[in-house]
Amino acid sequence: MRTFDELMMRRALDLARLGTGFTRPNPLVGCVVTHEGRIIGEGWHQQYGGPHAEVNALAAVRDQALLAQSRVYVTLEPCSHYGKTPPCADLLIEKGVREVVVCNLDPNPLVAGRGLQKLRDAGIQVETGLLEAEGRWLNRRFFTFQEKNRPYIILKWAETADGFLAGRYFQPIHISGELARMVVHQWRAEEQAILVGTRTALHDNPHLNVREWPGLDPTRIVIDKNLSLPPKHHLFDSQQPTLVYTYRQRDSKPNLDFVVLSEADNLFPQVFADLRQRNVQSVLVEGGPTVLNSLLRAGLWDEVRVLRNPKTLGAGIAAPHFGLAALREHLPLGEDELFVYHRPAAQTNE
Protein backbone atom coordinates (compact mmCIF):
# COMPACT_ATOMS: atom_id res chain seq x y z
CA MET A 1 0.00 0.00 0.00
CA ARG A 2 1.33 3.41 -0.91
CA THR A 3 2.18 5.67 1.95
CA PHE A 4 0.83 9.18 2.17
CA ASP A 5 4.34 10.53 1.54
CA GLU A 6 4.62 8.52 -1.68
CA LEU A 7 1.22 9.68 -2.88
CA MET A 8 2.17 13.30 -2.31
CA MET A 9 5.51 12.94 -4.07
CA ARG A 10 3.85 11.22 -7.01
CA ARG A 11 1.45 14.14 -7.18
CA ALA A 12 4.43 16.51 -7.20
CA LEU A 13 6.04 14.49 -10.03
CA ASP A 14 2.79 14.61 -12.02
CA LEU A 15 2.67 18.38 -11.56
CA ALA A 16 6.29 18.70 -12.66
CA ARG A 17 5.51 16.93 -15.96
CA LEU A 18 3.11 19.72 -16.88
CA GLY A 19 6.11 21.94 -17.56
CA THR A 20 7.57 19.58 -20.20
CA GLY A 21 8.85 21.52 -23.18
CA PHE A 22 8.42 24.93 -21.53
CA THR A 23 10.98 25.08 -18.70
CA ARG A 24 14.05 24.14 -20.75
CA PRO A 25 16.88 24.40 -19.96
CA ASN A 26 15.60 24.38 -16.37
CA PRO A 27 14.56 21.06 -14.82
CA LEU A 28 10.96 19.97 -14.31
CA VAL A 29 9.87 20.63 -10.73
CA GLY A 30 6.60 20.11 -8.89
CA CYS A 31 5.66 20.99 -5.32
CA VAL A 32 2.84 20.01 -2.94
CA VAL A 33 2.12 21.66 0.43
CA THR A 34 0.19 19.66 3.03
CA HIS A 35 -1.24 20.33 6.49
CA GLU A 36 -2.53 17.58 8.76
CA GLY A 37 -2.88 15.10 5.92
CA ARG A 38 -4.53 17.29 3.27
CA ILE A 39 -3.21 19.34 0.37
CA ILE A 40 -3.41 23.08 0.96
CA GLY A 41 -1.32 24.25 -2.00
CA GLU A 42 0.44 22.95 -5.07
CA GLY A 43 2.31 24.26 -8.09
CA TRP A 44 4.96 23.57 -10.70
CA HIS A 45 7.62 25.39 -12.67
CA GLN A 46 5.57 26.44 -15.69
CA GLN A 47 8.06 28.18 -17.95
CA TYR A 48 11.67 29.24 -18.10
CA GLY A 49 12.19 32.57 -16.37
CA GLY A 50 8.92 32.26 -14.46
CA PRO A 51 8.33 31.46 -10.77
CA HIS A 52 9.65 28.15 -9.52
CA ALA A 53 7.42 25.35 -8.27
CA GLU A 54 7.84 26.24 -4.60
CA VAL A 55 6.87 29.85 -5.24
CA ASN A 56 3.67 28.83 -7.03
CA ALA A 57 2.75 26.19 -4.45
CA LEU A 58 3.27 28.44 -1.43
CA ALA A 59 1.35 31.28 -3.11
CA ALA A 60 -1.59 28.89 -3.64
CA VAL A 61 -2.02 28.37 0.13
CA ARG A 62 -5.00 30.48 1.16
CA ASP A 63 -4.26 30.51 4.89
CA GLN A 64 -0.58 31.40 5.08
CA ALA A 65 -0.63 30.85 8.86
CA LEU A 66 -0.83 27.10 8.21
CA LEU A 67 2.64 27.08 6.65
CA ALA A 68 4.28 27.01 10.08
CA GLN A 69 2.81 23.51 10.55
CA SER A 70 3.11 22.39 6.92
CA ARG A 71 4.94 19.53 5.22
CA VAL A 72 6.24 20.39 1.76
CA TYR A 73 7.01 17.86 -0.98
CA VAL A 74 9.25 19.01 -3.81
CA THR A 75 10.74 16.92 -6.63
CA LEU A 76 14.14 18.66 -6.72
CA GLU A 77 16.29 20.27 -4.07
CA PRO A 78 15.20 23.91 -3.57
CA CYS A 79 17.64 26.31 -5.19
CA SER A 80 20.00 28.29 -3.00
CA HIS A 81 21.27 30.89 -5.47
CA TYR A 82 19.93 33.88 -7.35
CA GLY A 83 19.17 33.17 -11.01
CA LYS A 84 16.12 34.40 -12.89
CA THR A 85 14.32 34.28 -9.53
CA PRO A 86 15.38 34.47 -5.84
CA PRO A 87 16.40 31.29 -3.96
CA CYS A 88 13.49 28.99 -3.12
CA ALA A 89 15.28 27.74 -0.02
CA ASP A 90 15.14 31.28 1.36
CA LEU A 91 11.42 31.50 0.61
CA LEU A 92 10.68 28.24 2.48
CA ILE A 93 12.63 29.56 5.45
CA GLU A 94 10.85 32.92 5.30
CA LYS A 95 7.44 31.21 5.26
CA GLY A 96 8.42 29.17 8.32
CA VAL A 97 7.57 25.73 6.92
CA ARG A 98 8.26 22.89 9.34
CA GLU A 99 9.20 19.93 7.11
CA VAL A 100 10.47 19.50 3.55
CA VAL A 101 10.59 16.17 1.67
CA VAL A 102 12.82 16.13 -1.44
CA CYS A 103 12.86 13.58 -4.25
CA ASN A 104 16.24 14.38 -5.86
CA LEU A 105 19.30 16.37 -4.91
CA ASP A 106 20.28 19.02 -7.45
CA PRO A 107 23.59 18.15 -9.20
CA ASN A 108 24.03 21.73 -10.41
CA PRO A 109 27.25 23.00 -8.76
CA LEU A 110 25.40 26.22 -7.89
CA VAL A 111 23.09 24.18 -5.63
CA ALA A 112 24.51 20.68 -4.91
CA GLY A 113 23.37 20.33 -1.31
CA ARG A 114 23.52 24.00 -0.39
CA GLY A 115 19.73 24.34 -0.55
CA LEU A 116 19.22 21.49 1.89
CA GLN A 117 21.90 22.81 4.21
CA LYS A 118 20.20 26.20 4.29
CA LEU A 119 16.94 24.55 5.30
CA ARG A 120 18.57 22.43 8.01
CA ASP A 121 20.49 25.40 9.37
CA ALA A 122 17.16 27.20 9.75
CA GLY A 123 15.76 24.32 11.82
CA ILE A 124 13.60 22.78 9.09
CA GLN A 125 13.33 18.99 9.10
CA VAL A 126 14.53 17.65 5.73
CA GLU A 127 14.07 14.19 4.21
CA THR A 128 15.56 13.14 0.86
CA GLY A 129 15.45 10.31 -1.68
CA LEU A 130 11.71 9.61 -1.81
CA LEU A 131 10.93 8.10 -5.26
CA GLU A 132 14.44 9.03 -6.34
CA ALA A 133 14.51 6.76 -9.42
CA GLU A 134 11.22 8.19 -10.72
CA GLY A 135 12.53 11.70 -10.24
CA ARG A 136 15.77 10.96 -12.10
CA TRP A 137 13.82 9.53 -15.04
CA LEU A 138 11.57 12.58 -15.15
CA ASN A 139 14.61 14.89 -15.22
CA ARG A 140 16.92 12.58 -17.17
CA ARG A 141 17.78 15.41 -19.56
CA PHE A 142 18.84 17.70 -16.73
CA PHE A 143 20.83 15.01 -14.88
CA THR A 144 22.62 13.86 -18.05
CA PHE A 145 23.56 17.44 -18.89
CA GLN A 146 24.93 18.09 -15.40
CA GLU A 147 26.65 14.74 -14.87
CA LYS A 148 27.95 13.87 -18.37
CA ASN A 149 28.50 17.42 -19.64
CA ARG A 150 26.50 16.81 -22.81
CA PRO A 151 22.86 16.85 -23.91
CA TYR A 152 20.53 13.91 -23.39
CA ILE A 153 20.45 12.14 -26.78
CA ILE A 154 17.33 10.45 -28.14
CA LEU A 155 17.61 8.46 -31.38
CA LYS A 156 14.35 8.08 -33.28
CA TRP A 157 13.45 6.28 -36.46
CA ALA A 158 10.52 4.62 -38.21
CA GLU A 159 11.00 1.21 -39.79
CA THR A 160 8.99 -1.28 -41.78
CA ALA A 161 8.18 -4.76 -40.52
CA ASP A 162 11.06 -6.11 -42.62
CA GLY A 163 13.53 -3.61 -41.16
CA PHE A 164 13.89 -0.78 -43.67
CA LEU A 165 13.64 2.98 -43.10
CA ALA A 166 13.94 4.34 -46.65
CA GLY A 167 13.84 3.28 -50.27
CA ARG A 168 16.82 1.71 -52.00
CA TYR A 169 18.17 5.07 -53.17
CA PHE A 170 17.23 6.98 -50.00
CA GLN A 171 13.95 8.14 -51.49
CA PRO A 172 11.75 9.21 -48.54
CA ILE A 173 8.81 6.94 -47.77
CA HIS A 174 5.96 7.63 -45.37
CA ILE A 175 6.27 4.64 -43.08
CA SER A 176 4.41 5.73 -39.96
CA GLY A 177 0.70 6.32 -39.65
CA GLU A 178 -1.09 9.55 -38.80
CA LEU A 179 -1.14 9.04 -35.02
CA ALA A 180 2.56 8.21 -34.90
CA ARG A 181 3.41 11.32 -36.91
CA MET A 182 1.47 13.46 -34.44
CA VAL A 183 3.33 11.87 -31.52
CA VAL A 184 6.64 12.69 -33.22
CA HIS A 185 5.61 16.35 -33.22
CA GLN A 186 4.87 16.03 -29.51
CA TRP A 187 8.40 14.68 -29.03
CA ARG A 188 9.81 17.64 -30.95
CA ALA A 189 7.98 20.02 -28.62
CA GLU A 190 9.44 18.22 -25.61
CA GLU A 191 13.10 18.43 -26.66
CA GLN A 192 15.34 21.46 -26.89
CA ALA A 193 16.90 20.59 -30.25
CA ILE A 194 16.42 18.27 -33.22
CA LEU A 195 19.27 16.94 -35.39
CA VAL A 196 19.53 15.57 -38.93
CA GLY A 197 22.39 14.80 -41.29
CA THR A 198 23.10 16.05 -44.79
CA ARG A 199 21.37 13.21 -46.65
CA THR A 200 18.14 13.45 -44.65
CA ALA A 201 18.07 17.22 -45.07
CA LEU A 202 18.75 16.88 -48.80
CA HIS A 203 16.20 14.17 -49.62
CA ASP A 204 13.41 15.10 -47.18
CA ASN A 205 13.81 18.91 -47.13
CA PRO A 206 12.20 18.91 -43.64
CA HIS A 207 10.92 21.87 -41.64
CA LEU A 208 11.75 20.18 -38.30
CA ASN A 209 9.18 22.27 -36.46
CA VAL A 210 6.08 21.60 -34.39
CA ARG A 211 2.95 21.72 -36.53
CA GLU A 212 0.71 19.00 -35.16
CA TRP A 213 1.21 19.59 -31.44
CA PRO A 214 1.10 22.72 -29.26
CA GLY A 215 4.51 23.75 -28.01
CA LEU A 216 7.77 25.47 -28.77
CA ASP A 217 9.76 24.71 -31.91
CA PRO A 218 13.11 23.06 -31.14
CA THR A 219 16.44 24.44 -32.27
CA ARG A 220 17.26 22.81 -35.61
CA ILE A 221 20.68 21.18 -35.99
CA VAL A 222 22.02 19.96 -39.32
CA ILE A 223 25.34 18.29 -40.07
CA ASP A 224 26.51 19.67 -43.42
CA LYS A 225 30.27 19.15 -43.54
CA ASN A 226 30.85 20.67 -46.96
CA LEU A 227 27.88 23.08 -47.13
CA SER A 228 26.28 21.07 -49.92
CA LEU A 229 22.64 21.75 -49.04
CA PRO A 230 20.67 24.15 -51.27
CA PRO A 231 20.27 27.55 -49.56
CA LYS A 232 16.55 27.56 -50.38
CA HIS A 233 15.87 24.46 -48.25
CA HIS A 234 13.43 24.89 -45.37
CA LEU A 235 16.22 24.53 -42.81
CA PHE A 236 17.57 27.91 -43.90
CA ASP A 237 14.29 29.85 -43.72
CA SER A 238 15.24 31.58 -40.41
CA GLN A 239 11.84 30.69 -38.95
CA GLN A 240 13.44 29.10 -35.87
CA PRO A 241 16.95 28.92 -34.38
CA THR A 242 19.15 26.74 -36.59
CA LEU A 243 22.74 25.51 -36.15
CA VAL A 244 24.73 24.18 -39.10
CA TYR A 245 27.87 22.22 -38.21
CA THR A 246 30.38 22.30 -41.03
CA TYR A 247 34.05 22.20 -42.04
CA ARG A 248 33.60 25.25 -44.28
CA GLN A 249 33.36 28.91 -43.35
CA ARG A 250 30.15 30.82 -43.95
CA ASP A 251 28.78 33.96 -42.32
CA SER A 252 25.94 33.48 -39.89
CA LYS A 253 22.58 35.20 -40.24
CA PRO A 254 19.72 35.93 -37.84
CA ASN A 255 18.45 32.61 -36.45
CA LEU A 256 21.05 30.76 -38.57
CA ASP A 257 24.51 30.02 -37.16
CA PHE A 258 27.28 28.21 -39.04
CA VAL A 259 29.64 26.48 -36.62
CA VAL A 260 33.01 25.46 -38.04
CA LEU A 261 34.42 22.18 -36.71
CA SER A 262 37.92 20.76 -36.81
CA GLU A 263 38.39 18.05 -39.43
CA ALA A 264 41.14 16.54 -37.27
CA ASP A 265 38.80 15.62 -34.39
CA ASN A 266 35.77 13.36 -34.14
CA LEU A 267 32.68 15.19 -35.35
CA PHE A 268 29.98 14.39 -32.84
CA PRO A 269 31.99 15.01 -29.66
CA GLN A 270 32.68 18.48 -31.06
CA VAL A 271 28.99 19.02 -31.82
CA PHE A 272 27.84 17.99 -28.36
CA ALA A 273 30.59 20.00 -26.66
CA ASP A 274 29.40 23.08 -28.54
CA LEU A 275 25.78 22.34 -27.62
CA ARG A 276 26.88 22.02 -23.98
CA GLN A 277 28.30 25.54 -24.16
CA ARG A 278 25.00 26.73 -25.63
CA ASN A 279 23.10 25.16 -22.71
CA VAL A 280 21.22 22.74 -24.97
CA GLN A 281 20.18 19.90 -22.68
CA SER A 282 18.43 17.47 -25.03
CA VAL A 283 18.61 16.48 -28.69
CA LEU A 284 16.12 14.41 -30.68
CA VAL A 285 18.00 12.79 -33.57
CA GLU A 286 15.83 12.21 -36.64
CA GLY A 287 18.71 11.53 -38.97
CA GLY A 288 19.27 8.74 -41.44
CA PRO A 289 21.31 5.56 -41.00
CA THR A 290 24.71 7.26 -41.29
CA VAL A 291 24.06 9.62 -38.40
CA LEU A 292 22.18 7.05 -36.32
CA ASN A 293 24.79 4.33 -36.74
CA SER A 294 27.64 6.76 -36.03
CA LEU A 295 26.07 7.74 -32.72
CA LEU A 296 25.30 4.13 -31.82
CA ARG A 297 28.88 3.04 -32.54
CA ALA A 298 30.26 5.94 -30.52
CA GLY A 299 27.99 5.15 -27.58
CA LEU A 300 26.55 8.67 -27.79
CA TRP A 301 22.93 7.90 -27.03
CA ASP A 302 20.64 7.59 -24.02
CA GLU A 303 17.30 6.53 -25.45
CA VAL A 304 16.08 4.91 -28.68
CA ARG A 305 12.51 5.26 -29.96
CA VAL A 306 11.51 2.96 -32.80
CA LEU A 307 8.19 3.24 -34.63
CA ARG A 308 7.50 -0.05 -36.39
CA ASN A 309 4.84 -0.28 -39.10
CA PRO A 310 3.40 -3.54 -40.51
CA LYS A 311 4.06 -2.53 -44.12
CA THR A 312 7.03 -4.11 -45.94
CA LEU A 313 9.43 -2.81 -48.59
CA GLY A 314 11.33 -5.93 -49.59
CA ALA A 315 14.46 -3.84 -50.21
CA GLY A 316 15.85 -0.48 -49.20
CA ILE A 317 18.04 1.20 -46.61
CA ALA A 318 18.25 -0.96 -43.51
CA ALA A 319 17.27 0.38 -40.11
CA PRO A 320 20.06 0.56 -37.51
CA HIS A 321 20.87 -2.35 -35.24
CA PHE A 322 22.03 -1.74 -31.71
CA GLY A 323 23.25 -3.82 -28.80
CA LEU A 324 21.65 -4.69 -25.52
CA ALA A 325 19.28 -2.07 -24.16
CA ALA A 326 16.47 -2.06 -21.66
CA LEU A 327 13.00 -2.02 -23.23
CA ARG A 328 11.22 0.59 -21.17
CA GLU A 329 7.98 0.92 -23.10
CA HIS A 330 6.05 -0.93 -25.81
CA LEU A 331 2.66 0.29 -26.89
CA PRO A 332 0.44 0.53 -29.97
CA LEU A 333 0.14 3.86 -31.80
CA GLY A 334 -2.65 3.39 -34.30
CA GLU A 335 -1.29 1.15 -37.02
CA ASP A 336 2.24 1.37 -35.59
CA GLU A 337 4.03 -0.01 -32.56
CA LEU A 338 6.33 2.11 -30.41
CA PHE A 339 9.40 0.58 -28.78
CA VAL A 340 11.34 2.75 -26.31
CA TYR A 341 14.77 1.53 -25.19
CA HIS A 342 16.86 3.02 -22.41
CA ARG A 343 20.61 2.61 -22.34
CA PRO A 344 21.66 0.77 -19.16
CA ALA A 345 24.13 2.67 -17.01
CA ALA A 346 26.58 -0.24 -17.24
CA GLN A 347 26.99 0.38 -20.98
CA THR A 348 28.26 3.91 -20.64
CA ASN A 349 31.92 4.55 -21.43
CA GLU A 350 31.81 8.23 -20.62
Automatic annotation (TrEMBL):
Binding-site residues, Zn(2+): 52, 79, 88
CDD domains assigned to the protein according to its UniProt record, in alphabetical order: Riboflavin_deaminase-reductase
Pathway stated in the Swiss-Prot or TrEMBL entry: Cofactor biosynthesis; riboflavin biosynthesis; 5-amino-6-(D-ribitylamino)uracil from GTP: step 2/4; Cofactor biosynthesis; riboflavin biosynthesis; 5-amino-6-(D-ribitylamino)uracil from GTP: step 3/4
Molecular function GO terms recorded: 5-amino-6-(5-phosphoribosylamino)uracil reductase activity; diaminohydroxyphosphoribosylaminopyrimidine deaminase activity; zinc ion binding
Domain (CMP/dCMP-type deaminase): residue spans on this chain: 3-127
Cofactor binding summary note: Binds 1 zinc ion.
Obligatory cofactor(s): Zn(2+)
Gene3D superfamilies linked to this entry: Cytidine Deaminase, domain 2 (3.40.140.10), Dihydrofolate Reductase, subunit A (3.40.430.10)
The UniProt record lists the keyword Metal-binding: yes
Active site residues of this protein: 54 (proton donor)
A UniProt-annotated Pfam family: RibD_C
Entry EC no(s): 3.5.4.26, 1.1.1.193
Binding site for substrate: 188, 208, 211, 286
Catalysed reaction equations from the record: 2,5-diamino-6-hydroxy-4-(5-phosphoribosylamino)-pyrimidine + H2O + H(+) = 5-amino-6-(5-phospho-D-ribosylamino)uracil + NH4(+); 5-amino-6-(5-phospho-D-ribitylamino)uracil + NADP(+) = 5-amino-6-(5-phospho-D-ribosylamino)uracil + NADPH + H(+)
GO biological process, one term: riboflavin biosynthetic process
Residue positions binding NADP(+): 158, 200, 204, 288-294
InterPro entries: APOBEC/CMP_deaminase_Zn-bd, CMP_dCMP_dom, Cytidine_deaminase-like, DHFR-like_dom_sf, Eubact_RibD, RibDG_C, Riboflavin_Biosynth_HTPR
Keywords in alphabetical order: Hydrolase, Metal-binding, Multifunctional enzyme, NADP, Oxidoreductase, Riboflavin biosynthesis, Zinc
Keyword Transmembrane among UniProt keywords: no
Assigned protein family: In the N-terminal section; belongs to the cytidine and deoxycytidylate deaminase family.
Biological role: Converts 2,5-diamino-6-(ribosylamino)-4(3h)-pyrimidinone 5'-phosphate into 5-amino-6-(ribosylamino)-2,4(1h,3h)-pyrimidinedione 5'-phosphate.
NCBIfam families, A to Z: eubact_ribD (TIGR00326)
Protein name from the UniProt record: Riboflavin biosynthesis protein RibD
Naturally occurring in which organism (per UniProt): Hymenobacter jejuensis
Gene: ribD
